[in-house]
Amino acid sequence: MAKKVEDRPTESKSTVKSFKIEGKSMADKIKGKGVISGVAVGTILLAGQNLDGYLVNYQPGTKATEKKKAAAALVKVAENLKATIDDYTEKGLKEQAGILEAHRLLIEDPAISEKVDEEIEATGNAPKAVLNAYESNAQLFEQMEDEYFRGRAVDMRDVGKRIAKFLLGIKDPEIVGKVIVAGKEIEPSVIAGLPTDKIAGVILGAGSTTAHAVIIAKTRAIPTVVGVGEGIEQMANGDPAILDGETGEILIRPTDEERTAYNEKIKKQEELKAHYAQLKALPAKTQDGTEVELVANIGSPADADAAIKNFGATGVGLFRSEFVFMGKQDIPKEEDQFKEYKAAVEKCATVTHGEGLCVIRTMDIGGDKPLPYIQVGEEENPFLGYRAIRISLQRRDLFLPQLKAILRAGKFGKAAIMFPMVINVKEFLDAKEFVEEAKRELVQEGKEYADNVQVGIMVETPAAAVMAPILAKYVDFFSIGTNDLVQYTLAVDRGNAQISYLYNHFNPAVLRLIKRTIESANKEGKWAGMCGEMASDPNAAIILMAMGIKELSMSAPSIPKVKERIRNITMVEAKKILDKVMEMEDGDEIKKYLATIQN
Ligand code: PEP
Ligand code: MG
């Protein structure tokens, strides 16, 4: 929900690094894990308001009156939510609308009104009964093994509190200036309910990157730090604060000197932004004329829009379609998926330079991205388990509607279908057969679709990379997923902070697999791209180009820095660097060597 508008691996798992408070003469310094980069300056707005004081002063009526009040509140809050959902949908804020829709369903669930009535019988107090009812549901969710389900407990409490606040007549605080929303857990409605231009940053006590609050922050590119734990207790409403979404550093009540130091950083950030803005319309071409497509990794059509408009992406190299499946109660229908894919394909078709291709990856569920309505079951090793294409090939009820939606979207520009986690030719051919079946169904249903949709695979398993010369004969393209390829090749969990020193995309074993993959594609007249995090490393970009890569896909904010590096080098130089790199025996040595080369 996946992953900074930057991507994983850094975001794949929550890791509380460290937490310290330094001398009192300085600001309180808290360190968490930066997940969405950028510096934010604002005042703290604590999420998770305590209602105890209000509850003490609440004067309940008879049990019958309390039941009536509670029933009316459930209806009214659901109505209010519906109005906000409609407003968000109209404004194209789909993620927020989706989350609030899930909340509305939690209110309309008939079991909840029964539970509230039971609690009123016990407590005689409507707001308390509502809080208790949702709290007991939240606790049930919290006991679940699955991280995704555990994460939904916060939604339960959020809904309960929303209704209790209505019953207690509590209005939300007025927002003055920009705020940094902070909370051990942040109720999704807090972020979803605030205008984007009012939120400077987000601080989450929990380490979960699949929290809905983080998902929304990502789509809005709001600088975010997670995993600060008890650090939240050092903050009070209205405290001035500075947050660095890159380093994970947070300053509470900064001194003038600290502000000045950060102002410098912000000024540099602004200058760099202005400089990068000038590169937006320029091609990613080396000085001797070799060009590469710099495209974006996205989770929604709105991301595609921002990537093209703000960062000059020339298309989409990875639409993580599992985002379309998230925040929903059930499998999204073909028609709903079609609308999402069509919007992204149409956005890509507006590019004035480059291919304007929109590569849509079929859902990569499982591993670190579970879904409530797809039962994967308990697994010892979810990353090696029932996930991605393995699920799709067994679940035609999921796979066919998705393929049909993509094929139909292809009519509105240039689309490509990409299968995740493929390990052999058979999987690809089986999946391709599903594509043919999807086409046949579309013909029968009289629906229009594009017949020229390319079909390719992610190369993110060592098996696929080793078999690249064979696979290249069948596919239309490869896109190298280094986030997983590195973890599977080196047996290093991409989210484990303790062994992150081993997680290096310049490891010679990884480089050999990548080179083999690119060369195999080119030999068969196919194209190879990359959509793992490595693509956003400017030093990697130049050696990948020297290997013959045709497309680099990344979180959009990384595009300008990669483009700048490419525009300042010649292919002759890049090839020399590659030759040197391929002679080296150690990944750290390669990394250091590349960092010393300036152009
Ligand atoms: C990858 O593995 O490199 C990739 C892009 O896929 P994801 O990060 O979604 O697993
Ligand atoms: Mg992957």
Number of contiguous helices: 24
Number of domains: 3
* Unreliable sequence segments: 1-24
Just name the CATH architecture of the largest domain.
Alpha-Beta Barrel
Rg result: 25 Å
User: Which strand order does the major sheet show?
Assistant: 1-8-7-3-4-5-6-2
Largest sheet: 8 strands, mixed
Report the CATH topology name of the largest domain: TIM Barrel
Superfamily at the CATH H level of the largest domain? Answer: Phosphoenolpyruvate-binding domains
Please tell me the overall pLDDT.
87
- The total beta strand count reads 16
> Beta-strand level of the residues, as a percent range?
5-15%
Small molecules bound in the structure, each named once? phosphoenolpyruvate, magnesium ion
Outline:
globular
Structural class: alpha/beta
Distance between the termini: 37 Å
Question: What portion of residues is helical?
Answer: 40-55%
Q: Would you state the CATH class of the largest domain?
A: Alpha Beta
What features would you highlight for this structure?
Enzyme I, Chain A, domain 2; TIM Barrel; Glucose Oxidase, domain 1; 599 residues; eight-stranded parallel beta barrel; eight-stranded mixed sheet; disordered N terminus; globular; binds magnesium ion; binds phosphoenolpyruvate; alpha/beta
Overview of this protein structure:
With 599 residues, the protein is an alpha/beta fold. It folds into three domains: 15-49 and 173-262, Phosphohistidine domain (Glucose Oxidase, domain 1), CATH 3.50.30; 58-168, Enzyme I, Chain A, domain 2 (Orthogonal Bundle), CATH 1.10.274.10; 290-594, Phosphoenolpyruvate-binding domains (TIM Barrel). It has 24 helices and 16 strands. The protein has an eight-stranded mixed beta sheet with strand order 1-8-7-3-4-5-6-2. An eight-stranded parallel beta barrel has the order 9-10-11-12-13-14-15-16, surrounded by six helices. Helix 2 (63-90) packs antiparallel against helix 3 (94-108), helix 2 crosses helix 7 (153-168) and helix 3 (94-108) crosses helix 7 (153-168). The longest helix has 28 residues, at 63-90. The chain is globular. The two termini are 37 Å apart. Mean pLDDT is 87; it is low at 1-24. Residues 7-8, 318, 320, 364, 460, 481-484, 531-532 line the site of phosphoenolpyruvate (PEP). Phosphoenolpyruvate is lined by residues 7-8, 318, 320, 364, 460, 481-484, 531-532.
